[in-house]
Design a protein that fits this description.
Main location: nucleus
GO molecular function, one term: DNA-binding transcription factor activity
Protein name: BZIP domain-containing protein
Family: Belongs to the bZIP family. ATF subfamily.
Strand content: under 5%
Number of strands: 0
Order of helices and strands: HHH
Subcellular location: Nucleus
Helix content: over 70%
Largest sheet: none
Number of helices: 3
């Protein structure tokens, strides 16, 4: 057989010359220390769990703060409803009178500060 015949015969039989299967050309085999790799994986998992725990603590804190705000607003709404009932019946409770006076004082102070800022 000639060299042309040998080349075509080897190509048809599926041989791939000097190339080894399963390896990439130009790369050296990486020696992996399996114990070190396992320890890195465990450390990464520990860090992930710690981050997750912090994230949940932060979210729980946000929820607790929002719940406190909701309860405070509900209490304020209940107070306002009570004042409305009193005004509808023609009564003004001391707490409502006090609130109205404090609001009018705040408005007066705001007007005074806005007047001084305009000049």
């Amino acid at each position: 057989m000639s060299s042309d015949t040998q080349a075509s015969t080897s190509q048809m039989s599926g041989e791939k010359g000097q190339r080894k299967t399963g390896k990439r050309p130009g790369r050296k085999p990486v020696k992996i220390d399996h114990k070190a790799k396992l320890e890195r994986s465990r450390q990464s998992a520990r860090e992930c769990r710690a981050r997750k725990k912090l994230r949940y603590q932060y979210i729980e804190e946000l929820v607790a703060n929002r719940e406190k705000a909701v309860f405070a607003l509900r209490e304020e709404l209940q107070t306002c409803r009570q004042w409305c009932r009193e005004v509808d019946s023609g009564q003004v409770s001391p707490s409502l009178r006090e609130k109205l006076l404090s609001c009018s004082e705040d408005d007066t102070e705001e007007e005074m500060t806005s007047d001084t800022e305009d000049t």
